[in-house]
Amino acid sequence: MRFDATAVDGPAPPSGRVVEHVWCRRRVVDVVWDDGFVLHSRLRFGGSWHVYRDGEPWRRSSAQAGLAIAVPGWVAVCFGPAELETYRELDAERHPAFGRCGPDVTVGHADVDTCVQRLLDYPDGEAPIADVLLDPHVATGIGNVFRSEALYVCGLHPWAPVAALTDQECQRVVRRAAAMVRHSVEAASGLSPVDTRESLLVYGRNGQRCDRCGDTVRVDRADSRDRLVYWCPGCQIAHEPPPATASPAVDPHPAATQFAADLPWRRAAG
Question: What count of other Cβ atoms lies within 10 Å of the Cβ of residue 202?
Fold first, then answer.
């Protein structure tokens, strides 16, 4: 990803992250990355965001562009911004009263052993592992994408109480998430030949067939801030808690239920 801005109040987004949401409210457009990084833009009258394919001519002069976000094959351009600002989502858990943040796993020398130990010593044993992996006191930099991917690879149910995990499971899920994040960062900087985001196993695949067990991948809202977790109910069964604490992030209309039931692998299973 390339982030070019003439004047932005705040830092540039970190490498290797994924844009997860774009919120539009009249002349305000917020772009939200998976680790909680936010680009806030407020447009002047006549201002607008455009999206172009690589090589496609821009419909407005580049002199009017305040910011461009480029990814392979596409570029999003903000023309006529009145305000451009970047920040991280408000998170009460980041307050100093809650203790120091854990190691940043986006850097090559991250102290992953400390992250593992903080997971093992987590004070709220009933907290679901999907939430704990995003707690900055355990580790920083994991984000939604690799939280979902690591839980899937390890076969852990997203709402498994953290106290139920064995020492080996804690070691594996933290190390797997950290390795995925580092690989993504290296791919974004050209240090790795393979882009992890092109081979995601579960993230963004809601409604598709699981490559491992054949069940249907689903997406749920995992916490009070509506962060999404993608997972497979067919094979992520380790430490499965009693029935569901999550609210589905899919259409609850009966037609949606019927559509899911009519998927070919659902019919075959029946």
Answer: 26
Q: Where are the domains of the chain?
A: 2-88, 106-269
CATH for 106-269, options being 1.10.760.10, 3.40.30.10, 1.10.8.50, 1.10.1610.10: 1.10.8.50
Q: Tokens 């992890």 identify what position?
A: 196
If DSSP codes are grouped into helix, strand and coil, which group holds residue 190? coil
**139-186: pLDDT as tens digits:** 988 988 999 999 999 999 999 999 999 999 999 999 999 999 988 888
* Three-state helix/strand/coil letters over 14-75: CCCCCEEEEEEECCEEEEEECCCEEEEEEEEEEEEEEEEECCCCCCCCHHHEEEEEEECCEE
Whole-model pTM over 0.70: no
